[in-house]
Records
---
Amino acid sequence: RYCRLRSWNTLFVCGTDEYGTATETRALAEGLSPQELCDRYHAVHADIYAWFRISFDCFGRTTTPQQTRIAQDIFQRLLERGFLLQDTLEQLRCESCGRYLADRFVEGTCPFCGYPEARGDQCDKCGKLINAVELKNPQCKVCRGIPVVTPTQHLFLDLPKLEGRLEAWLERSWAAGDWTANARHITRTWLRDGLKPRCITRDLTWGTPVPLDGFRDKVFYVWFDAPLGYLSITANYTDQWERWWKNPQQ
């Protein structure tokens, strides 16, 4: 509102981040499809923001054709430029359900503190991050069957290849910008420890499809997909969206 009062050209967008395992597990608990769940809660969120008179130009969502198009386009550009690599991950698979178990679809005993209801990504008692295959006595949350460790192929963003370029950009940005001390510290820590390849795919059905042979039964990991919602929501608002997001001179 301040920017608008100053007559600055202003765009204010937000939306609901709708893909990922949190949606799938909640939909399962409520007896709904993931789409039905997202439709319900998108309306709830939109009503709350309207009640607070928060003046978004567009309050959108990530489950749109524009989101799919933009995410897949960025993926293809990364692929063409050699910034992706393939590797094998060991994952828990439930043979009864016929699916690999994403982190929130598996529970077991925490390998660190012994808490018996730890999730496949984190223990809520001791707070430690967990790789699902490290869980003791793992169980599928859907059928309570015992999953087995199975190898599966995934795609990774080759962050080490970008490390030198990123470091040079950060030095320029730190010199010219107004970074907080905390932001500088966290970023320096990442670089000090060395960037690692980061997985961008998951064995799920609820998400943006991966447009590559051999991976078409997978979707993009929500961390790769969700930030692009700002772009796709802008694209749903105006066909001039690239003037907002691809305009480094302004």
Note: Residues 93 and 100 are 4 Å apart (CA to CA).
---
Amino acid sequence: FGIATDESFVITTTNRKEITEDNFSELVQDGVTLYLLQSVDQMLLLATKERIDFLPHYDTLVKSGMYEYYASEGQNPLPFALAELIDNSLSATSRNSGIRSIQIQLLFDDSQGKPAVAVIDNGRGMTSKQLNNWAVYRLSKFTRQGDFESDHSGYVRPLPVPRSLNSDISYFGVGGKQAVFFVGQSARMISKPADSQDVHELVLSKEDF
């Protein structure tokens, strides 16, 4: 890599976790993306791209009938789709020490691109790994264990209170994706973890699929 013998460097994951002798076998696996940096908090010189590959979760087959839950409500499905889209925001802002801000914007200005629904919050943000796992269809937040770093870390199902307050809307790990493609043709998630300077962006597109 052209590193001088007297120059120090670190190797990190995309979540800026430094690779050491102790955690090497845990963090370095086939297909993982690594950064070679001068320091853990070094600013990236260029944006990096990472392709997400995964096998569908088995719930895709065994629970696919849940697709009908919109229709089974016997009501206009759009409110339920919007509720799914703010589920991540409810979870992300649940530990805020100050004001929880969640905005839903409906964008119809043709000069700014195609029509879109934007959900914006001031939550803790997601790492690249958490965004990766959000993209995995049918990976429930209640079964994200082992190699899967959840965006609901330490999540415990709360006491029976209105779901609009407890971020328990999406049970099966599919609601957000299903809602996206019910409303439109693509999804773009942009997130900056609270303890990192990196901004991560995930794009799911029907055209790409």
Note: The beta strands are 10-13, 34-37, 102-107, 116-121, 186-191, 200-205.
